[in-house]
Amino acid sequence: MTLLDIKNLNLSMRSFEGETQILHGIDLKVERGEIWGMVGETGSGKSLTGLSVSRLIPPATGRYLAGSIEFEGRDVLKAGEKEMRALRGRKIGMIFQDPTTNLNPVFRIGTQLVDVALHAGHADPTVLGLEPGASSRDLKKAAKRVAVEMLDKVGIPKAAERIHDYPHQFSGGMRQRVLIAMAMIGKPDLLIADEPTTALDVSVQAQILKLIHDLVAERNIGVLMITHNLGVVAQICSHVAVMYRGRILERGLVTDVLKKPSHVYTQALLNSIPTAHTKRGELRGLGGVMPEVQ
Amino acid sequence: MTSTPTTLPKRDQSARLENWARAFYRFRQSWLSVIGLAIVVMLVAVALFAPLIVPHPEHVAGGTNTAARFTAPGADFWFGTNALGQDVFSLVLVGSQVSLFSGLAVVIIAIVVGGLVGAIAGYFGGWIDEILMRITDLLLTIPSLILAMAVAAALGTGVTNMIIAIAITWWPAYARLVRGEVIGKKEEQFITAAKALGASWPRILGRHILPNIMSPIIVKASLDMGFAVLTVASLGFVGIGVKAPTPEWGTLLSVARADMPDYWWTAVFPGCAIFLAVLAFNLLGDGLRDVMDPKARR
Amino acid sequence: MILYTLRRLILLIPMLIGLTMIVFAIARLLPGDPVALAAGPNATPDVIESVRQEFGLDKSLPQQYWAYVTGLVQGDWGVSIFTRRPVFEDIMTFLPATLELVAAAMLIAIVLGIPLGLAAAVYRNGVVDYLTRTVALGGIAMPRFFLGLLLQLMFVSWLDILPLSGRFPLIEIPPEGPTGIYTIDSIVAGDWYSLTIALQHLALPAFAMSLSPLATIMRMMRASTIEVLQQDFVMTERALGISNTKILFKYVLKNAMTSTLTVIGLYVSWLLGGTVLVETVFDWPGLGLYATQAILSQDFMPVIGVTLVIAMIYLVTMLIVDLLYGVFNPRVRYT
Amino acid sequence: MQMTRRSFMGSAVSAAALASMPLESFAAGRKILIMASSVDIPNFDPHVATGYAPAMLFRNTYDALVRVVGTPPEVKPGLATSWTVSEDQKHYEFKLDPTAKFQDGSPVTAEAVVYSFKRIVKLKRGPSWMIAGIVDADSVKAADAQTVAFDLKAPFAPFLQVLPWMFIVNPTVVEANIGSDDGQAYLLANTAGSGPFKLGRVLPGNMYEFIRVKDDWHQGGGNLEGAIWKIVREASTERMMLQRKEAHIALELYAEDMEALKDNPAVVSVIEPEYRTFSIKMNTAKGPLADKNLRKAISYAFNYQSMLDAAGPAELMVGPLPTGIFGHDPSLTVYRHDMDKAKEYLAKSEYKDGGFKLSVMHATGYENQRRWSLLLLEALKALNIELDIRPATWPDTVAAAQSPDTMPSFMCLFQTANYADPDNVAFAAYHSSRNGQWQNPVYKNEEVDKLIEAARVETDQTKRAELYKQFQELVIDDAPDIFGLLEKRKLGFGANVKNFVFTPVAANAIELLPLSLD
After folding, report:
1. Residue A289: pLDDT band by 50, 70, 90 thresholds?
2. Which pTM value belongs to this model?
3. pLDDT band at D17 (very low <50, low <70, confident <90, very high)
4. Pairing with B255, which of A5, B106, B218, D96 sits 20 to 30 Å away (CA)?
5. What pLDDT, in 10s, does the model give residues D310-357?
């Protein structure tokens, strides 16, 4: 069964200025073991596509005009909130861009990890290494243990102690590791990573990407990596989809698309990356106006 | 999920106009603010023209009509009459003068004094800041209503004394606000530039910093207008207010307490007037805050 | 944290010295001569002069201040020139009533304000939201003394289900206890009859006083909850399947509480200084009435005393708020 | 915090009980009388404090040689069971009740009486002015343990009338707490008397509790176990407390309150004339009002009928003395609202065209005074004179009365007679020796002084009445005051209060002993 199958997704968003269609017929399939890179400029609709998979766009502002998003064969757009909650954290993990704002500043990271682990454990105790029907005390104990293990796994030194620390006591890269741990603690089948490295130092970026890559390889899961950075795509992704103004212009294996872009926009995108050979004053922007999204 | 328009900024003038248009649009978005503005405008109009339009100006000047004591509200006396047969409607309408005028005066004095202290403290920093702000902090710990009452009682009744008494307790809040804003602005490039050009400190404060920190001051002032009206009424209510026969809402209410509950109208209408005025300024202030100080949005 | 608390407490001392100076200066620089009153209406000039000497009012201002401060340290807060009773004793007599009123009002405000603000933020633009916002707007604009009068009109004159004024029926012996706060004392003594009566008397003034802090807490809570709800970590928490209830009552609440906490702290002192009006309306025998009486008779010492007590409570409240702030916000460091 | 939370939960539990508990149950059972009054009792020293609230305390915790009861006021035995007066009215002898005991159990002796009078004379405060020039430190002697002899400096017709205000203190207690101020600091907050009641709970500015002394020497008396003097700031609150049976006696009611209480079967209204005058004193020494013609013009311009309308049960004064008191002449021609005459006198004055501003001071929070100040404003406006109305606290009023420079143009004043004799009003309010005091800040007329002094010591009643007649005519012609009105005393009683007898002197200083509660 296809892990994630987005078919003809059409989304419109309401704002002060009225309703604007953001996504125009997105089609995308993600299989286990694939790392899909979704590239495009800010406002191209790639983030909204990611959020749509977890159904995280508030119904008051977002409206699906047409299409379906099938996760393991079930259409999440038709699923109830309870059903969705069972998927989130357990089947679908998510990582967002800014590690400083995505951790709750007033709670110990342990608390936050354990809550996610507990949630996943309630749905499926095996995630925490327990038999089905485990008591909630066992669940709590296991959740704590798994939280430490997970922190250790994402490379936080002295995880057992640091679990009692608050987010502000970690560096940016470390925080992103914590967030990855939170996203992966429920052993999800699909990981949606929305610009996971953008806010990080270049040196840290590579480590985080490697961490994600290793986890994917170990667990054989599908990944939707949302980024505007073609470099990231080149480093880690197996497949790539290029988005522009709510449409996917081009998709395929990374090697194919990046070497032989068939669409002019992709070419332009590739050209806009400054390389060591770019001369001063040659930095090129992209033409056209993006639809505004508040 | 944010995006920035990639269009070039338009010319400065029209951009400013557009800012105003946007601000006004945002203000209009909140119908409560519009109502607040409408009531404030109405109150100001009433305060300005009340002596000319009230049905019984002679009662406002202290005239009495003891034959018509405690007439219930009706066609002749819309809000009824009080113990001296005076028309409550006329008194309440003209009462807006004292409330609005004193409120405005209190806020202006507080802004001028507090602004000066705060600006000097913030601009010079160091020991000047330390001394001025310690005094300000101390004054802020003193219960303001009790202080205002004590000062007003000692100075004797009268509008001026009341204004002084309230203003004494109000300026420290503005000193704090202005100091914070000045400190925030003084490190900015355009100030450094002005300094480099040899501008004197009053000029820098007055011409460069002050115009840039007006928004939060105006917002606070409009909110404070409501509370100033309330404080004026409070002093009137405890009996330290204006001199008779000047009608003032708090005093009217306080005097009418003796006639409750049988002659409820003598108390209810002045009370409602206070409520309405304070409410209107609060609504207006909230609206202005949304427009001028988006950071502090509710 | 203990060190920090100690340091803050020590820092209170210079503040208190400054405070006594300012309050003393304000009180004494104002015009008005209480001596004529103290001496009595039929006193001759030499009697008035002797009273002036008795209270040391013939000395220079610095001398008077020094005498006052040295007395203050020894627990002698001066004597009312009007009743000649020691100010400290009087304040201790009236303080519990005011504390009870303020605590009850704050309790109502917090217990109602926080959940309502939260609900308004969650169901933004819903019925609860509009209702609480209307109440909030009205609550802030409503003069407490006017509200008090309306409450009396309604619950006493018309419905006749609550007592008009006062703190306890005159002929009943109020519960005796360590705090002087009747509700607490009667609970300590297990005296439910007294508790009921005390609560009957407390209900209206406490409600009249709670409306303004209730409105502000509600607004603050709503605003900060809305702000917190828009934070990225809420999205993360949702995306990872944490239930909305848990997000709201665990993760969002604690964040939103920090700014609300400051408001609560500020309100405690604001209410203490503002009990005057409600105490006047409900004849509540607290500091406010005591201060009003003293102000009207230009009796310095009680006014200075009350001001100092309230300012001290303010400073201590702000210290407690700062400490609690650290509980809610681990980023605050006590140095 | 924890506790208050519990109390709040308790309130939720008992919410039902809260609404259903009958409020009357508070008062059931115990015979405790509650008096609601707006006046505080700041000082308990009978030789220092004045005013009717302290007087109430003195009357019930102390005893005087004689008491005054009924209408017209009659002198009755107090500590003294009998007394004799010499032919020249200068020598008095009082026989003390041998059973009389102070609250500490010691007997009330003639020495105690002598001690008390010496203290009154020495302190020169409180009631001392009533006997100034009549009694000095050597005038009082103990003839034996039970007999007190007075040798007055001059005959003083109202001597027996002022004695009820000379309270006897327990010398042992005072001496034990004498301090450096003759025990003033001690008696300020403690009592040392022989009265039927002692002080219970004291909450300054709020309430004072009186407890009936057990096995006390006073004969007769009602069934009260105690009483409470409750300070209430609003007349309307007093009235509501009365209606709600939260108080038994309301002491300061307005006409509107009496109207509201009229048909209430549970309340007995007492509206009685009293020697309590209201007048507006003028600054006769300084400023425009030093001009007699201007004073007359204003006296004519004032609208007396409106004043009466706003006052409720009252009657206009006829001249400076209260109507009904000895020597008062009801046939006097006095000022009434007459604009023609007002204009006529204005034309005679130096201020024909007006165009200046005068000031009036009235008691803060005293509603009727405020109303009358407004009427004065109206009257002056007709003469083209502006008026600045200044509400003033009592200390301000007293301070302003100290000299012609500090005195405003007008001062609103109530005066209550302490003793039912014209000398009370005449001496206190018009004798120049009282200049600088609130009752007579500035008025000085040597002829008037002479008449007052002569009348004070005149023992022949006809001659005395004639002297007072001359005094009244002279004062009316001088117009130092706008003679206002005699406000009737308006009291409200719960129907279950028994045995109250009205006395038109210091009527709110309720004597508790005879009262009973059903």
Report:
1. very low
2. 0.80
3. very low
4. B106
5. 887 888 999 999 888 888 988 888 999 999 999 999 999 988 888 888
Show residues of chain D in contact with C169, CB under 8 Å. Answer: 26-27, 246
State how far the Cα of A187 lies from the Cα of A92, in Å rounded to an integer. Answer: 9
- Which residues of D sit within 8 Å Cβ distance of B? 234-236, 240, 254, 256, 260, 305-306, 309-310, 364-365, 367, 370-371, 373-375, 377-378, 381, 388-393, 396
CATH of segment(s) A1-80+224-294: 3.40.50.300
Return the residue in C124, C233, C247, C251 with the most chain A beta carbons within 10 A, the one to mutate for interface testing.
C233
Contacts of C220 in chain B (CB under 8 A): none
Domains of chain C: 87-332 (1.10.3720.10)
The answer to whether the CB atoms of B3 and A290 lie below 8 A apart is: yes
Query: DSSP readout, D122-182?
Result: HH--GGGGGGTTT--TTTEEEEETTEEEEE-SS--TTHHHHGGG-EEP-HHHHHHT-TTTT
* Structure confidence at residue D280 (pLDDT): 93
> From A50, which residue of chain C is nearest by alpha-carbon distance?
C239
pLDDT tens, B45-79?
988 888 888 888 777 777 777 777 777 887 778 88
Contacts of D182 in chain C (CB under 8 A): none
C239 touches chain A (CB under 8 A): yes
Instruction: Inform me whether the pLDDT recorded for B16 exceeds 80.
Output: no
Q: Is the pLDDT of residue D5 over 50?
A: no
Please answer yes or no on whether B1 and A48 come within 8 Å at the CB atom. yes
Say what the pLDDT of residue B12 is: 55
**Which residues, including other chains, have CB under 8 Å from residue A156's CB and lie 6 or more apart?**
A162, A174, A177, A178, A181
- Under DSSP, is residue C49 helix (H, G, I), strand (E, B) or coil? helix
Which structure tokens are listed for C36? 């004529």
Beta-carbon contacts below 8 Å between A and C = 78
Q: How far is CA D282 from CA A218, C50, D279, D360, in A?
A: 105, 30, 9, 9
> A102–C251: do the CB atoms touch at under 8 Å?
no
Neighbours of C33 (CB within 10 A): 16
Q: Does D241 touch chain C (CB under 8 A)?
A: yes
- DSSP of B135-182: HHHHHHHS-HHHHHHHHHHHH-SSHHHHHHHHHHHHHHHHHHHHHHHH
CA-wise closest residue to A215 among A184, A193, A240, A238: A184
Domain boundaries, chain A: 1-80+224-294
Beta strand spans in chain A (E): 4-15, 18-30, 35-39, 62-71, 74-75, 92-95, 190-194, 222-227, 239-244, 247-253
Task: Kindly state the tokens that stand for D195.
Answer: 């009265």
**Chain B 21-50, CB below 8 Å of chain D: which residues?**
none
3-state SS assignment for residue D49: coil
Pair D501, D514: CB distance under 8 Å: yes
Which pLDDT score is estimated for B123? 87
Is B5 in Cβ contact with A293 (below 8 Å)? no
**Using CA atoms, how far apart are residues D37 and D230, in angstroms rounded to an integer?**
6
Kindly report the number of other CB atoms within 10 A of residue D426's CB atom.
25
Among the partner-chain residues D17, D203, D398, the one whose CB lies closest to the CB of C93 is: D203
> For B256-273, what is the mean pLDDT?
83
CB C185 within 8 A of CB C177: yes
- CB < 8 Å to D406, chain B: none
ipTM for the predicted complex: 0.76
Is the pLDDT at B156 greater than 80? The verdict is: no
Residue D10: count of CB within 10 angstroms of its CB? 17
Closest CA to C52 of C68, C33, C71: C33
- For chain C, list residues with pLDDT below 50: none
Judged by 3 or more CB pairs under 8 A, whether A touches D is no
- In order of A47, A193, A232, the CA distances from A196 in angstroms are 12, 6, 10
